[in-house]
Design goal:
- By secondary structure, the protein is α/β, with parallel strands linked by helices.
- Helices cover 42% and strands 13% of the residues.
- It is built from 12 helices and 9 strands.
- The chain has a 9-stranded mixed sheet, with helices on both faces.
- Helix 1 packs across helix 9 and helix 9 crosses helix 10.
- It is globular and about 45 Å long.
């Protein structure tokens, strides 16, 4: 795959529905920022519409924080964490969207495990599973074989180790093989994050990303990446291409941010801020 490469060229008569409606299930009382980061990143990555499903007791927090993103309050029994009673509403809403991102900041509450597994079994739209979505599958990812739609998993090394019931050291020592074998075995695209992020496809293609810098080792950077991947999927990219382009543009935005903010001074929202400059640099109009 050659970089830079054109992304999306928009027709002059385009409207928001041409660029995908994404449902994001992210955030909880302790990790409210995760939902904001991935939803805003998806908007900056070109999604036409983004709806963020949130614990209903946190609605005032998100209503003040977000402007362009729509909100879907979901049952949480007043605890600030999605409850299993939220699933019927999520299931119905999935019929209205073009993509699903599930996981960032959801927490590891027992009800999250149920919601994540129901989403995996029932989603008919492309989906991205990240963070606590992956933690809900730790040690037993067999349910991934039931996925009916294109899927991308975006684990960091510790999450990958939990999925495989292995050590982080083993994952890091065998990054390409681990990614390739998992993607092939579960018939989905896998993004193994870290220095020189590895993207593996189910047909054994491999992409090693060269953009990015140590300043991106900061809380929330992974949430930003998952939002970009989901936005590209929702706009019609096939999973491997969406993942490769997402990690590239994510790293490039981080590189551009580091030039102005410095590596130690970077935070995750800086990556979102510099996404437009990154798109410009790779000539979005082709």
């Amino acid at each position: 795959m050659q970089w830079p490469a054109p992304f999306f060229k928009r027709k002059c008569n385009a409207h928001k529905n041409d660029f995908g409606h994404l449902l994001v299930l992210a955030g909880s009382r302790r990790y409210a920022g995760a939902g904001c980061l991935c939803a805003n990143a998806a908007m900056r990555a070109g999604a036409g519409l983004v709806t963020l499903g949130i614990p209903e007791s946190l609605y005032p927090v998100y209503a003040k924080k977000l402007t362009e993103v729509m909100l879907l309050p979901l049952a949480d029994a007043g605890r600030g964490v999605l409850s299993k009673k939220s699933w019927p509403v999520i299931k119905a809403f999935l019929k209205k969207v073009d993509g699903l991102l599930i996981g960032p900041g959801l927490s590891q509450d027992k009800d999250i495990r149920l919601v994540v597994r129901q989403a995996i079994k029932n989603a008919l739209v492309p989906l991205v599973i990240d963070a606590d979505g992956l933690n809900a599958l730790a040690g037993d990812p067999s349910i991934l074989k039931t996925i009916k739609a294109p899927a991308v998993l975006t684990p960091h090394p510790k999450e990958m180790a939990r999925l495989m019931n292995a050590s982080t050291a083993m994952v890091q020592k065998n990054r390409k093989k681990v990614a390739k074998d998992f993607a092939y075995g579960y018939n989905m695209t896998l993004v193994l994050k870290g220095h020189e992020t590895v993207v593996a496809s189910p047909d054994k293609r491999i992409y090693i990303n060269k953009t990015g810098n140590p300043g991106m080792a900061t809380a929330g950077a992974g949430d930003v990446l998952s939002g970009i991947v989901a936005a590209f999927l929702g706009q019609g990219m096939e999973p491997f291409e969406a993942a490769c382009r997402a990690v590239y543009i994510h790293g490039l935005a981080g590189d551009l941010a580091a030039k102005d903010k410095t590596e130690p001074g970077m935070i995750a929202s800086d990556i979102i801020e510099y996404l437009p400059k990154a798109f410009k640099k790779v000539s979005i109009d082709g």
